[in-house]
Amino acid sequence: MLTEGHATPATNGAGSAFVLAIDFGGSKTAVATVDPRGQIVATERLGLDKATRAEEIVADAARAGRRLLEAAPSGPCVGVGVARPGIPSAEGVLLSPNLPSWDRVRLAEEIGDAFGIAPVVVANDVKCAALAEHRWGVLRDVDLALYVNLGSGVGAATVASGRVLDGAHGGAGEIGYAAGRIPELDRVTSTLEDMVGGRRLAERASELAGRTLTTREVFDSNEPALANLVDDALATLGAHLRTLVLAFDPTRVALGGGLMGHAERVLCALRRHLSVPAPFSVDVVAGQFLYDAALRGAAAVALDAVRGGADG
């Protein structure tokens, strides 16, 4: 699942080494310089038009990264970590419907060429977020845990004995592709992401209300039809997560992503649905890094690659 670029470290004067982290999300791109302790030194966030092609998004991120490198007070930059939805490979990115045109982008190679820095490590964004929460956040010192991202897309990651599990093909945790029935379409079966993902939830609510609504407006609405829509979505999500909890028996489930801007409602619903049978229960909490976990995780995989190279 991880790929590396080929180049040399970029030096920005004497000082502590740092890494560059990039998160290509469904609604934004975030770029940051990060120190070895995982602390963000500086960051830029770029808005994203979903019609923009992958090549343009990568070019924008490269420009933002160069600005951060030029402004960094110390150096050298010793690696780059990249988080993005889907399953990255050397040839492109698979399973990334919210970000089209990425399937033929050699991301590690292009980022390496853009910055002249190695290693460049590319990883799934939800797995990056889980790593960040395990290393520095609410999953720290938890031996077996689940991380669930609720944003434009829906995904999960399992942390076991200090490792985030990839799966045989890098697709572990891609629960957004599980079947989920959309009530207003009666018997038509779609995916869990169509049911719960923030973008599709807003689209469905807009069709129902006859006006354009944002996800925040849907959650904040007192209209019974929209409230029922959200309740049904959270109930469906809860049913799927309940299966994961029963299968893995984790100590803790951490929730992150944009929908956690409505943490009280989401947590209340999912805690109710995840009240699994005695004699065990699971701790359901909000992530520490609700909006930048994947970015921090991208830094973590870069730091790990640098340390691994040094050890080798």
The proportion of residues forming helix, as a percent range, comes to: 25-40%
Within the CATH hierarchy, at the fold level, what is the topology of the largest domain? Nucleotidyltransferase, domain 5
In the sheet with the most strands, the strands line up as: 3-2-1-4-7
Largest sheet: 5 strands, mixed
CATH architecture descriptor text of the largest domain: 2-Layer Sandwich
Instruction: State the end-to-end CA separation.
Output: 20 Å
**SS elements, strand count:** 14
Total domain modules:
2
Q: Which range does the strand content fall in?
A: 15-25%
The level 1 CATH classification of the largest domain is Alpha Beta
* Total of DSSP H or I helical runs spanning 4+ residues: 9
CATH homolog superfamily of the largest domain: ATPase, nucleotide binding domain
The low-pLDDT segments are 1-14
Instruction: Compute the average pLDDT.
Output: 86
Mass-distribution shape: globular
User: What is the element string, with H for helices and E for strands?
Assistant: EEEHEEEHEHEEEEEHHHHEHEH
Structure class: alpha/beta
Radius of gyration based on Cα positions: 20 Å
Can you put this structure into words, describing what you see?
Helices cover 38% and strands 22% of the residues. The chain is α/β, with parallel strands linked by helices and 312 residues long. The chain folds into two domains: 18-124 and 292-311, 2-Layer Sandwich (Nucleotidyltransferase, domain 5), CATH 3.30.420.40; 138-286, ATPase, nucleotide binding domain (Nucleotidyltransferase, domain 5, 2-Layer Sandwich). The strands form four sheets. A five-stranded mixed sheet has the order 3-2-1-4-7. The protein is globular, with a radius of gyration of 20 Å.
